[in-house]
């Protein structure tokens, strides 16, 4: 979008996006983290969003894994999709799952599914990849993230110009020698939230690390800007851990949207915390993992490789006019 002559097409683009939003629900104000425990062969993720829709599972909407036993070229991989919710007709998601099964590296997968030609000839309503956010990890110790370059401008248009659209990926090694690779991402969230999530990924095992990362924004009054009026970080949430080779679930918590008798949104992290504590109590005794989950059980030596994607505002002319 360049100058006054192009303003009309900019407005047309915005109108098209808004029109399409009436058909495709965005996972509004979402933050998530996907991680692989390379030492113990586990993979998992945690996320919350401010999407106020009944009977919607954020786990089903965001979480897509391919266990290692499904392909000789794939040791186990996990993709989180957010921004716009995917469905079974989504060409981006279907291509991603195929490439994951073939053992394609995360950078190449994201490059392929964010190619504009993926949508050509598809019976699928726009907008597409430019309003998506992805996080991908695998058991080869690789991670990649993507943040669509129109998310910033779209949320600015809706009045959320102070929100952050950001992704971070890297590795961490626990004091006990457990190696992790992770990808964290957030859109329409408070500034510094994604960094807070990454810094809190610091527990005795994968489950606790994901849990601590998920709840960390709530301890610093950060979160989904759209849920700020309800004084909660999100309206639905999930926490999931499975074996990377067989896909066998060891922990699964999926909290759906709920309101109390006064019509106020119930904080999903309250239920998630309670379920996590009960799950932890039922696990075999591990001196490294405490049931007291307010603080990390063990220290972590960070080796984080930050990857901040540049945001290209497509309403530049409108801003200057």
**Strand pairing plus helix content: what structural class?**
alpha+beta
**Rg estimate, integer Å:** 19 Å
Number of domains: 1
Weakly predicted, low-confidence segments:
1-27, 295-321
Strand residues, percent: 15-25%
State the fourth-level CATH superfamily: Aminohydrolase, N-terminal nucleophile (Ntn) domain
Strand order of the largest sheet: 10-9-2-1-8-7-11
Number of helices: 9
**In sequence order, what are the helices and strands, one letter per element?**
HEEHEEHHEEHEEHHEEHEH
Q: Globular, elongated, flat, extended or rod-shaped: what is the shape?
A: globular
Proportion of residues in helical segments = 25-40%
Q: Largest sheet, described in full?
A: 7 strands, antiparallel
């Amino acid at each position: 979008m360049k100058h006054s002559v192009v303003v009309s097409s900019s407005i047309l683009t915005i109108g098209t996006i808004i029109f399409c939003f009436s058909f495709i629900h965005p996972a509004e104000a979402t933050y998530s983290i996907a991680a692989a425990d390379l030492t113990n062969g586990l993979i998992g993720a945690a996320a919350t969003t401010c999407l106020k829709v009944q009977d919607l599972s954020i786990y089903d909407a965001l979480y897509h894994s391919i266990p290692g036993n499904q392909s000789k070229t794939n040791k186990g991989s996990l993709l989180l999709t957010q921004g716009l919710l995917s469905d079974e007709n989504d060409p981006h998601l279907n291509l991603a799952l195929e490439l994951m099964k073939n053992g394609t590296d995360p950078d190449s997968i994201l490059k392929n599914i964010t190619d504009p030609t993926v949508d050509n000839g598809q019976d699928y309503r726009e907008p597409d990849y430019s309003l998506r956010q992805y996080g991908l990890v695998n058991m080869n110790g690789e991670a990649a993230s993507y943040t669509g370059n129109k998310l910033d401008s779209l949320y600015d248009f809706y009045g959320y110009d102070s929100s952050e659209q950001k992704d971070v990926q890297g590795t961490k090694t626990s004091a006990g020698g457990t190696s992790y690779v992770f990808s964290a991402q957030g859109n329409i969230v408070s500034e510094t939230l994604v960094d807070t999530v990454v810094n809190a990924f610091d527990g005795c095992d994968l489950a606790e690390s994901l849990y601590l990362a998920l709840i960390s924004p709530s301890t610093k009054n950060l979160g989904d800007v759209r849920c700020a009026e309800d004084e909660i970080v999100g309206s639905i949430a999930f926490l999931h851990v499975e074996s990377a080779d067989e896909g066998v679930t060891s922990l699964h918590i999926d909290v759906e949207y709920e309101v109390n008798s006064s019509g106020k949104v119930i904080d999903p992290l309250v239920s998630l915390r309670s379920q996590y504590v009960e799950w932890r109590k039922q696990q075999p005794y591990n001196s490294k993992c405490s049931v007291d989950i307010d603080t990390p059980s063990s220290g972590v030596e960070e080796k984080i490789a930050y990857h901040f994607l540049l945001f290209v505002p497509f309403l530049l002319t409108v801003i200057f006019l």
